[in-house]
Every structure is written in structure tokens, then in C-alpha cells.
Amino acid sequence: MRQTVIRCLVVAACASATTAQQPDGPPTGGRRLVDQVEAVIGDHVLLQSQLRREVESRIAGREFSAEQIRALTDEVVFDLVREQIWVQYGKSLVERSPQNLDEFVEQRVDEQIAEEIRQSGSFLRYESELGLLGDSWSETRRRRRNRILEEWGRVSAVSQLARQRSLLVRPAEIREFFEAHIDQFQRPASADVSRVGFRIQGNAEDAQERATRAAEAWRAEDLAPLVVAERFQGIEMNALLRIEDTADDPRAPFLKKFAAEHPAGFVSEPIQRGNFFLLLRVETKREAKTATFDDPDVQATIRNKLAEQRIDARQDQVMRSKAREIYVWPPALGRRISG
User: Which CATH architecture has domain 189-287?
Assistant: First the structure.
């Protein structure tokens, strides 16, 4: 039965993409293969095209060997499947709830999209930006809904810890951690740098022009990197980079130089790296500091870290349990996640 479901999903994927550009190759059974199922998680299908886009967004502007790309692809599959398990868990919470939580989720989605329209300036401009990014209304709503469900799943997973007061950290635990990891509290000067990339697709001048306009807007307004990327058809380069003034910081030398030479809020000119133009922005800067145990910030940092470790352990425990309950294909992937 499950194999039949998978074959039906493949056919559905092909049927939904009949208007897309078809790749070269001999037709099979009167149809051309336009996509491929990489994984199935509950009622969700991870397609090869989705996986490829996510891998490309993580590679953006950097040099990768074929072996590194294979390793990154494996990591992305693992991350996307784990993310979808949280979504499926959040969905099950909504379905089991006696309250009308599904309506609340849709309301949250509407609010998020309304805020994005406001930031874009008008509905028509927002709709145009969606088209340039290759997104549809249904895809946009699905992505926002999944983020909310994933968040609910994660929060629910650790709520029992909070009820049991298991997130409370004793003073003795804080001191023990400080003494065992004292080297971590000798803080070098550091800066947080965000990045937005603009892919060169045939015409480098177009990507550079969009990057230049984005830089001007970013200097004029204190915008989040994701907003800049969406407004000017760029790509947010994932997490914020923390650049430290140490010899063993593995960041590219040009990033360390950029962070050291410019104040917080500074936005670079477009920088070409591979097939991207990059914009860099210094978000925050911190001076070098030698910390002591009496520093309230040190104790707060340790307390938060120990609480986060317990949360991570609880989430990992729930993740393994849900991976055994939810149908995951290929089976080896489910076994890998469930431990």
C-alpha cells in the first residue's frame, strides 16, 4: 500500500509540473520525468527540485568540491526531514485539539503575509515579487503555515520540562560549568555580519544593479536581511555570521577584514563572489572582554546554555519518538533519525 502511495505521489508531481520546462531525454510511457521524490514524511513529499534549491541557497557564492556537495546534500535532506517531522507533529496537535486552532493558524498566516505586503509597499508590488521569486500564493501560505506548525511542535516538546521545573538551573551547576569551561569566557572582539546574495543568471549587470539598489535601501532603512532579499529578488545567506578577532576563526579573511574595519550598521558595496554579488552588513560589534564569574552576564549565559542543553535533549528525544511513529521513506532515513 505504501509503495502504491509513493508511486501515486511521483505521478502527481509529474502532473503538477506539466507546464514547466521539460528536460532533454527520451519520454517514458508518453510522459517526461520532470521531478523526482527524494523522501516522504507523513503526508509530505520532498521533491528533488526542492532539495536542489535548498542546496544551492546554502552553497551561494562559495566554492564547493563534488564531495562537499554530496555531503551538504545529505545534510540538507536530514535537516529538511527533521523539520518536516516537527511540522507533522505540530499538525497532529492542531488536529487533536478541541479548540479551533486550525483557524488560529490561518489567522497567523494572514497576519504574516499582511505584514510582508506592508513592507513591500503595495499588494501589486508584493505579488510581483512573488512572481519574480517563482512563488505562488499557495506555496507562500504553505511555507508560512509549516513554520508555525514547526514552532508549535518544538514548543510542545519542551513544555513538559517547564511544567516539571526541569529547566531551572542550580547555582552550583553554573559555577561548575564556569570552572570547567573558563576559556570560553575570555571574549575576543567580535562582530555579527549578515549577508544577502544576488545570483548572476546570464546578465551580471542585472544582478549588480539589484544589489546596488538593495544596498541603498538597506542604508536608508534598518531592514532585516530576509526583507532585503525578498524585496530585491536576492537570497538571504542563512544564519548571522559571528566574526571573532582570533587567529583560529575559520571565516574568510575578507569577512574578518570587513568586520574589523567598519562600524555597526555599515553596508558594503556589491562584492562579486563566484556567480553571486554579495551585500554585507555589520549588525553589531563587541569589544574584547575578560569575563569573571561575578559578572551577571556570564551567569546568565551559562544558565541559558544549560537550559538550552536540556531543551535540545528533550527535542531530540521527541524527534526520535515521532520519527518512529510517522511514516518516513526511504526506511533507512527514518531509522537514521529515530536512532
Answer: Roll (3.10)
